[in-house]
Amino acid sequence: MKVTPFSPNCGAVVSDLQLATMNDAQLEQLRDAFTEHGLLFFRDQQLPPEEHLRFANRFGKIVVNKFFKTTEESPLIAEVRKEKTQQTNIGGGWHTDHSYDDIPALGSILVARILPETGGNTQFANLAAAYDALPNTLKTRLEGLRAVHSNTHLYGENGLYRFTDLKDQLGGMDRVGDATHPVVITHPQSGRKVLYVNPGHTIQFEGWEFDKSRELLDELYAHVAQPQFTCSFNWQPGSVTFWDNRCTWHQADNDYQGQMRLMHRITLQGSELEAA
Ligand code: SIN
Q1: If you measure from the C-alpha of residue 105 to the centroid of ligand 1, how many angstroms do you get, rounded to a whole number?
Q2: Which fold is adopted by the domain 2-269?
Q3: Best CA proximity match to 102, nearest among 194, 184, 177
């Protein structure tokens, strides 16, 4: 198995490995690569739904998304679907999966099923590298802060998605809720300090006025979205991506109107997040 950085601060490509047939020693090597990079890309995989599930179960415990439709093949696999006729895509803005849960997701394994001819890349950002590069004064300001993460503004009765052409494929309107997490966490495996806020779900700092929160959050979001912390993955048939939700953001490009894109996503259960 070979692990090659994808870009200086963002992800790594794993080659010479089939996820469906790897042995236990390779799985342990993969865990180490996942801890080191937080974002792994695979090409030319043979990973039908049953093997997708098997890989996920070997790596961790599956947690089901509250809002997405699941696949015909399994209630444990979420569908990220955009039909030819739909305008809006799922996950089109920077976010981290499940940060609105008290126990946020460890990671997500995304498998390409139907791809547009061009476009439909997924972009990623590295939140550990972004934290390291913050000025010391800002790091000090963030110490001890907690932030509120929510899904109500997206999936609730008046949430943004309810006013789009995705509304019929999303459920869980009655399962919305918030959680609070430290703004800077210690990553449970790597021990690195990570900036744990994201534009999709973090709505404000706990105990702060909304406008003051917005100002600082926007500053942090602009910092993370800089090219030196981000990368863009170009999907091909057989591509798989496995990202760590505790130390990355992602967003899906919506630049393939009139074409279909279908991805299968399995999300893995994480643990409570500790302040750095
Ligand atoms: C997601 O937000 O999990 C979906 C990403 C993608 O479709 O590329």
Answers
A1: 14
A2: Double-stranded beta-helix (3.60.130)
A3: 177
Mean pLDDT calculated for residue range 165-184: 93
What's CA 140's distance to the chain center, in Å?
Answer: 27
132: exposed, middle or buried (C-beta count within 10 Å: 0-12, 13-18, 19+)? middle
- The Cα 82–Cα 227 span in angstroms is 27
Each residue's pLDDT tens digit, 4-60 = 999 999 999 999 999 999 999 999 999 999 999 999 999 999 999 999 999 999 999
At 271, is the pLDDT very low, low, confident or very high (cuts 50, 70, 90)? very high
Global pTM value:
0.97
Q: How far is CA 110 from the centre of its chain?
A: 10
Q: Which atom of ligand 1 is nearest to the CA of 95?
A: 2
Which of 121, 251, 253 gets mutated to test ligand 1 (max ligand atoms within 8 A of its CB)?
A: 251
> Alpha carbon of 186 to those of 23, 61, 106, 116, 181: distances in Å?
30, 21, 13, 38, 12
Parallel, antiparallel or unpaired: strands 202-205 and 193-195: unpaired
Region 248-265 average pLDDT = 98
Query: Hey, where are the domains in the chain?
Result: 2-269
Take atom 5 of ligand 1 and give the residue whose Cα is closest.
252
Would you say the C-alpha torsion 120, 40, 5, 182 has a positive or negative sign? positive
Band of residue 173 on the pLDDT scale cut at 50, 70, 90: confident
Ligand 1 centroid to 229 CA: how many Å?
18
CB atoms within 10 A of CB 97: 28
